[in-house]
Amino acid sequence: MKSTRECPRESAYSMPAARPARAILWRIEGFSLKKRSLVLFQRDDCHLCDLALDVLAQAQAPEFESVFIDGDTLLEERYGVRVPVLRDEASDVELEWPFDEGQLREWLARN
């Protein structure tokens, strides 16, 4: 008599079964799976930088790092009077001021 072995069924928590559902969930909620590293370059006592922070809050932007360029020669040369500048380190793309909530959301969706 031939012995038959039953293959164990995949549980709902196994990776092959869970992966497509997670991908669909991410797509539905509009999230991106790529890692994003946002940096806001700004100056101390900068009114425009404060406005940019307000726009980031209104748009519910993902977490970002604030970098103050004051006293850093290289950053001052690069960003100088352009601050505030939001940079996506992962895609090497920058968004310069002025920007509003809608423009910020579009930029985040593209990058």
Q: How would you characterize this protein structure?
A:
The protein is α+β, with helices and mostly antiparallel strands and 111 residues long. The chain has a domain of 73 residues: Glutaredoxin (3-Layer(aba) Sandwich), CATH 3.40.30. The chain has four helices and four strands. It has a four-stranded mixed sheet with strand order 2-1-3-4, with no helix packed on it. It is globular, with a radius of gyration of 22 Å. The N terminus is likely disordered. This is Glutaredoxin family protein. Pfam families: Glrx-like.
* H and E string: HEHEHEEH
> Within the largest sheet, what's the order of strands?
2-1-3-4
Number of helices: 4
The CATH architecture category of the domain at 38-110 equals: 3-Layer(aba) Sandwich
CATH superfamily of the domain at 38-110: Glutaredoxin
Got a strand count? 4
Work out the radius of gyration.
22 Å
Q: How much helical structure, as a percent, in the residues?
A: 25-40%
Mean pLDDT equals 80
Shape: globular
CATH-defined fold name of the domain at 38-110: Glutaredoxin
Q: Which CATH class of the domain at 38-110 applies here? A: Alpha Beta
Largest sheet: 4 strands, mixed
Specify the structural class. alpha+beta
Poorly predicted residue ranges:
3-33
What's the end-to-end separation, in Å?
A: 62 Å
